[in-house]
Design goal:
This protein is mostly beta strands and 298 residues long. It contains one helix and 22 strands. The chain is elongated and about 105 Å long.
Length: 298
């Protein structure tokens, strides 16, 4: 078989051979070179050989690995034939380079027969980051993708006070197919005191996937619940931040009722059927509780 031959320089300097791939070798895969070296190669010379990987037209390498960390000298000794130098891919690349630094008085040839890398189909959308933060305008959500393939749109979903019962609060168009990093921004103008957010990404073929969940606490809305009157004989009124979900508990922690503080309304809880004693109203978002007393019946 034919091979490309790389001759080590006999003076200071370096000799390099770079090979390009038709596709990107993804992170997490395996790549390698099939090489053969002359019989005068020893351990000290092996340490002067390096494999580097590159992406696109960048002059900076992605990874650099000394050959002596990837292959034993015995595999390159006389009579061993071709040897495979294999390495795990820590960063994606589409070019691999074999480099030999200047060796002063030494000179030898290395034949490179082939280079390979394991290729896996790219994810439809490669999400880099998804985050949220509280602002004066509401909860600012941002996310970015490293690449997208047949991406149709993103649905922003929110659940209040627990990571269940997500509902759609907005939608942004995807980038379709691109290998470039894409940035997205969305503002939830009406967040709850404690909100859970996630992205539902929809492909053009209808396939969907979900992002990790992001939790954002709005301190301005996290006012404690209040309950009055206490002692109570007929009803108690519960007040707090709009959107707060609560539960009424007895002294043994048994749940009697749940509800939400809604805009323009104050929840009322009927206590007439309860025996006299101490009861609690718990904010299910923060876990804090306030108590009230049901007056004993006369």
């Amino acid at each position: 078989m034919t091979a490309a031959t790389l001759t080590a320089p006999s003076l200071l300097g370096s000799a390099r051979l770079r090979l390009g791939f038709g596709s990107i070798v993804p992170q997490g895969g395996v790549a390698g070179l099939v090489i053969q070296a002359g019989s005068n190669l020893d351990l000290s010379l092996l340490s002067n050989m390096t494999i580097r990987t590159y992406m696109g037209s960048s002059a900076s390498y992605e990874e650099s690995m000394p050959l002596n960390s990837l292959i034993s000298l015995s595999l390159l000794s006389a009579g061993a034939g071709k040897a495979t130098v294999e390495f795990p891919v820590g960063k994606a690349f589409n070019q691999v380079e074999l480099r030999i630094s200047g060796l002063l008085s030494a000179s030898f040839d290395v034949d490179v027969f082939s280079a390979y890398g394991t290729l896996t189909p790219p994810l439809p959308v490669e999400l880099v980051i998804f985050q949220g933060k509280r602002t004066v305008a509401g909860t600012a959500l941002s996310w970015s993708t490293a690449s997208e393939r047949n991406s149709d749109y993103f649905v922003v979903e929110r659940a209040d006070n627990s990571s269940e019962n997500f509902q759609s609060i907005g939608q942004l168009q995807g980038a379709g197919t691109t290998s470039q990093r894409t940035q997205y921004d969305f503002v939830d103008a009406r967040p709850g005191a404690l909100s859970y957010y996630r992205l539902r990404q929809v492909d053009r073929d209808g396939a969907t996937s979900f992002s990790p969940v992001v939790v954002v606490k709005n301190a301005a809305l996290s006012q404690p619940l209040t309950v009055y009157p206490s002692p109570a004989t007929q009803n108690v009124v519960i007040t707090g931040a709009v959107g707060t979900r609560y539960a009424v508990l007895d002294q043994l922690g048994r749940q009697l009722q749940t509800g939400d503080v809604l805009p323009g309304a104050r929840p009322v809880f009927d206590v007439r059927a309860l025996p006299g004693g101490v009861y609690f109203v718990r904010d299910l978002g923060t876990g804090s509780s306030t108590r009230f007393i049901r007056a004993a019946a006369e």
